[in-house]
Fold:
Amino acid sequence: MTLDEFIEYLCDLVARAGSPRQLARQLGISTHVLNDTLNNHRLPESKLLSALGFSLVITYTHKPPIITYKPPVAPRDYRLTPLMMRA
Structure:
């Protein structure tokens, strides 16, 4: 579930409870925390998540790098040859 889907779920719970204050009271959290979460001003706190049977999981996905790696070029051999020594 994405954060937007979770907030939508919270909005449905608020509608069923009658008001954000009522839902916050039922969940045992402050109205301020609930409203900040509903307005996307903060991530859901652990107390809110656990009261609803959720947990926060952060995932990282691999994407191709922006800069591609180029292996270093082998150094050239700059030894003097007999033709170069004449000059």
